[in-house]
């Protein structure tokens, strides 16, 4: 029997993008943003200096040094027993991130085969049974069942099934078996 498929986003889902972005942005701009202070804000509201934000995101090693989300490695390994996992990242907006993301995955998720890594511009083409992502702009086009991973910018969004952490994600997906 063919396994069901899951597309899993990287930034904000597997990798703690929020913490890294706040640290780098604060250092570059002299601000004192915290995870708490940006809850419920859009990315544009939280990071007002857009030119600076793009400089931070295009900085060498920004994506390569992202921390791993708590329980992500163990949870993906667990899900892999019953699902085919694809790591899907809309990475082409920041070309420097492409090699860094592949290297990051090789370090933290070496059990994900290279052919199950999809670095793209738009996720509208992704056709999996489930998609775990923190952005509604990706989940709204999901062909399968969208699962929203909580992030500062989506806490006020309610139109997708929400999970707050990897333990919840595993529980929700295991219920579908």
TrEMBL record:
<dbReference type="Pfam" id="PF06941">
    <property type="entry name" value="NT5C"/>
</dbReference>
<feature type="active site" description="Proton donor">
    <location>
        <position position="11"/>
    </location>
</feature>
<feature type="active site" description="Nucleophile">
    <location>
        <position position="9"/>
    </location>
</feature>
<dbReference type="InterPro" id="IPR036412">
    <property type="entry name" value="HAD-like_sf"/>
</dbReference>
<dbReference type="InterPro" id="IPR023214">
    <property type="entry name" value="HAD_sf"/>
</dbReference>
<comment type="similarity">
    <text>Belongs to the 5'(3')-deoxyribonucleotidase family.</text>
</comment>
<protein>
    <submittedName>
        <fullName>5'(3')-deoxyribonucleotidase</fullName>
    </submittedName>
</protein>
<dbReference type="GO" id="GO:0009223">
    <property type="term" value="P:pyrimidine deoxyribonucleotide catabolic process"/>
</dbReference>
<dbReference type="GO" id="GO:0008253">
    <property type="term" value="F:5'-nucleotidase activity"/>
</dbReference>
<dbReference type="InterPro" id="IPR010708">
    <property type="entry name" value="5'(3')-deoxyribonucleotidase"/>
</dbReference>
